[in-house]
């Protein structure tokens, strides 16, 4: 009898907080059955075992911030049949892309006494700026149910079902009273990519955009609205500059308010 | 493993696994003596302290959470307490309890991940928990369920398990009615039993004989096992207010690492984390946790870092018990947060992250903008101690085969549950034997 080989999974890390790959280990109810269908061939955070590539599915966390990592991602692409990026670091450069708006040399000297030991690029950039990416899963952190959907879709050879509409729509589905309308709380929900399930408004705070921009967001009217409710230019610039600051729509909008 | 013609032996493990983040290890042995030990941290720097400048004080807890996906609550707690210190605000009563409850969730989730998925496979000779599950299915499943209890607590109180959204300077965005927390009470009664079983199970693991004369450093609070508050004390006489941290500790930047090493100015390396907390605060554990520790053969003091897996289990038991206590006595905080007006000042805070003390210091201006930020994470504090351990460990066990010694060096590092993401990417072990 011939044994059917399971597809090989690899998890790779670049500049990140490990939160997105941890999402996989946080699937307490599903982890063992996922491991039954897919061979965990390279996942240093979870196992000492390293099975040689090529890999059928690579999940990539983190952004590119060093010259070596810019080389390493090419290597990862070469050994991966399907490459999926997970999380805001990988899809947009992450919070560490805040350096992109400043002088990185100054940043190095603020944190380190011996700046000469540090080798870093001026910009933190998303994976898709370096190699072809087959699918991007958004979020800081990603939603673990969406991650399972992406893995199941891969196993079934279909497209993942991850809606591209705004967080606003998730909020309405959930039946949460609008925090902007009811409480005047500034909220990024109308321009933010769906996926988290609209958690923040259900906790009585405005969305802060950790899933990044939705497709063709109207950030201009968003900013106008914030201004009307009294937000300063500086506040608006900062609101767009958090975990997806380098994603183009958010970057451009923040630059119009950055004096 | 390669043996060169000139007699040099090089053992190389490309990836030291089951740690959070990426780093490397280099050990050189010549004439049966250890010559060099270097723990290298390749994790690329992310410059949090730099880009925190000019941010509003209210944004800080959400930003610092992104330093670490495994212990975001620790970052949020150190941030909010340091900000409140700068602003002259003290959060007390039910709000304080709710913060403690959230922290219990993180300790459970983080410790259980380490016990079952990262550390236990070393003791039983498996490469990972999934392989271990094939022979020890029930144990791994219980571990996963216990981890889920911690995560469920984080989801309820924090909004989600990674980078919770409910924490703010002054309190929470949303608080809960008592009946909304009832499900947790039932779940945590189960969790406490499962945690007790875990202590008993870990106590039976095979341990290396290895004890060192460490200086343990942890928070100490007069009335409770420490989470968010207390004085900083050590097993060698340190007893200071958090605001004096910089007078006693300093960070060194060494060439082989992207992390800053932290040392005690007067005495050098020190040890933070579960074992330090346990040794300095045993008397503050709840009766059930104390009793379980005694039965596990740890009546209050432990100097063998391999046994940290038992201590983590005792802390999980304590955190489950403490969570239940808080849940059962819960009163809904009203209002959910204290309104705060910005004013200029400098604030300090140190809280007990799962891996040990996490120090934050911020200076803000009149408008509440951050002028300066300093963050000292637990792993950079333990780094020197880890190197010292390896130095002594390798010297003691040189007769082991290269393969075995390499694995045990990895295990010796995992004793500390190092979070390299915090300390600033894979551990490479290279060993030269001449
Ligand atoms: S996207 Fe956010 S959660 Fe994911 S690795 Fe980056 S910082 Fe962590």
Keywords, please?
heterodimer; A: 259 residues; alpha/beta; Rossmann fold; five-stranded parallel sheet; 12 helices; 37% helix; 10% strand; globular; B: 434 residues; alpha+beta; Cytochrome-c3 Hydrogenase, chain B; 15 strands
Structure description:
The complex is a heterodimer of chains A (about 260) and B (about 425). Chain A has about 260 residues and is an alpha/beta fold. Chain A is built from twelve helices and five strands. In chain A, helix 3 (about 65-80) links the parallel strand 3 (about 55-60) and strand 4. In chain A, helix 11 packs antiparallel against helix 12 (about 250-255). Chain A is globular. Chain B has about 425 residues and is of the alpha+beta class. In chain B, about 45% of the residues lie in helices and about 20% in strands. In chain B, strands 1-2-15-3-4 form a five-stranded mixed sheet, covered by helices on one side. In chain B, strands 7-8-9 form a three-stranded antiparallel sheet. A three-stranded antiparallel sheet of chain B has the order 12-13-14. The radius of gyration of chain B is 21 Å and the shape is globular. Iron/sulfur cluster sits at the interface of chains A and B.
Give a brief outline of the structure.
The complex is a heterodimer of chains A (259) and B (434). Chain A is α/β, with parallel strands linked by helices and 259 residues long. Chain A has helices at residues 19-25, 31-37, 67-78, 88-92, 104-111, 144-155, 167-174, 179-183, 199-202, 219-228, 233-240, 248-257, and strands at residues 8-13, 39-42, 55-61, 80-86, 135-137.
Q: At the fourth CATH level, what is the homologous superfamily of the largest domain in chain A?
A: NADH:ubiquinone oxidoreductase-like, 20kDa subunit
End-to-end CA span of chain B: 14 Å
| SSE series of chain B | EEEEHHHHHHEEHEEEHEEHHHEEEHHHE
Q: Which shape of chain B, going by the Cα principal axes? A: globular
Major sheet of chain B? 5 strands, mixed
By CATH, the topology of the largest domain in chain A is Rossmann fold
């Amino acid at each position: 009898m011939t044994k059917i080989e399971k597809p090989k999974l690899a998890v790779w890390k670049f500049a990140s907080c490990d939160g997105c790959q941890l999402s996989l280990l946080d699937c307490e109810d599903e982890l063992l059955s996922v491991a039954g269908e897919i061979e965990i061939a390279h996942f240093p955070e979870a196992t000492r075992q390293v099975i040689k590539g090529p890999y059928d599915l690579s999940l990539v966390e983190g952004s590119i911030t060093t010259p070596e990592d810019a080389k390493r991602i090419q290597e990862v692409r070469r050994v991966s049949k399907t490459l999926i990026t997970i999380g805001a670091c990988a899809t947009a450069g992450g919070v560490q892309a805040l350096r992109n708006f400043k002088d990185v040399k100054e940043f190095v000297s603020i944190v380190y006494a011996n700046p000469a030991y540090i080798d870093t690029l001026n910009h933190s950039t998303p994976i898709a700026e370096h190699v072809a990416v087959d699918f991007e899963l958004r979020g800081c952190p990603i939603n673990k149910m969406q991650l399972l959907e992406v893995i199941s879709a891969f196993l079934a050879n279909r497209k993942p079902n991850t809606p591209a509409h705004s967080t606003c729509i998730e909020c309405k589905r959930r039946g949460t009273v609008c925090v902007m309308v009811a409480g005047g709380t500034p909220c990024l929900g109308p321009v933010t990519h769906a996926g988290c399930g609209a958690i923040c408004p259900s906790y009585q705070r405005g969305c802060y955009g950790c899933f990044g921009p939705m497709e063709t967001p109207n950030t201009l009217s968003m900013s106008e609205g914030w201004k009307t409710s009294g937000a300063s230019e500086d506040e608006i610039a900062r609101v767009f500059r958090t975990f997806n600051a380098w994603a183009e729509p958010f970057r451009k909008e923040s630059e119009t308010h950055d004096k | 493993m390669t043996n060169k013609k000139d007699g040099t032996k090089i053992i190389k493990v490309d990836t030291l696994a089951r740690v959070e983040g990426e780093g490397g290890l280099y050990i050189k042995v010549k004439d049966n003596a250890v010559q060099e030990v270097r723990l290298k941290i390749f994790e690329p720097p992310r410059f949090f302290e730099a880009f925190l400048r000019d941010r509003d004080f209210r944004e800080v807890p959400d930003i610092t959470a992104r330093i670490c996906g495994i212990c975001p609550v620790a970052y949020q707690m150190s941030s909010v307490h340091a900000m409140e210190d700068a602003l002259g605000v003290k959060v007390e009563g039910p709000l304080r309890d709710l913060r403690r409850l959230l922290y219990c969730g993180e300790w459970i989730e983080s410790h259980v991940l380490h016990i079952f998925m990262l550390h236990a496979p070393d003791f039983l000779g498996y490469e990972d928990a999934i392989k271990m599950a094939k022979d020890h299915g029930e144990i791994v499943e219980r571990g996963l369920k216990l981890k889920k209890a911690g995560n469920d607590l984080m989801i309820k109180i924090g909004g989600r398990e990674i980078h919770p959204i409910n924490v703010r300077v002054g309190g929470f965005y949303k608080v809960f009615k008592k009946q909304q927390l009832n499900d947790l009470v039932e779940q945590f009664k189960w969790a406490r039993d499962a945690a007790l079983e875990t202590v008993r199970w870990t106590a039976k693991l095979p341990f290396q004989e290895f004890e060192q004369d460490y200086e343990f450093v942890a928070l100490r609070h007069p009335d409770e096992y420490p989470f968010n508050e207390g004085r900083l004390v050590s097993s060698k006489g340190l007893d200071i207010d958090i605001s004096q941290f910089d007078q006693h500790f300093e960070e060194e930047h060494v060439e082989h690492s992207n992390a800053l090493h932290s040392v005690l100015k007067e005495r050098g390396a020190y040890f933070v984390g579960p074992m330090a907390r346990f040794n300095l605060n045993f008397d503050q554990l709840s009766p059930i946790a104390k009793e379980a520790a005694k039965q596990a053969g740890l009546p209050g003091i432990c100097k063998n870092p391999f046994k940290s897996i038992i201590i983590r289990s005792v802390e999980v038991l304590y955190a489950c018990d403490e969570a239940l206590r808080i849940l059962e006595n819960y009163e809904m905080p009203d209002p959910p947060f204290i309104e705060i007006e910005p004013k200029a000042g400098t604030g300090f805070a140190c809280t007990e992250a799962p891996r040990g003390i996490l120090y934050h210091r911020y200076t803000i201006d009149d408008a509440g903008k951050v002028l300066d930020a300093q963050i000292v994470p637990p792993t950079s504090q333990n780094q020197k101690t880890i190197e010292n351990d390896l130095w002594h460990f390798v010297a003691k066990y040189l007769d082991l085969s290269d393969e075995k010694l390499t694995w045990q060096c990895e295990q010796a590092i995992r004793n500390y549950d190092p979070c390299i993401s915090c300390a600033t990417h894979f551990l490479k072990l290279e060993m030269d034997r001449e």
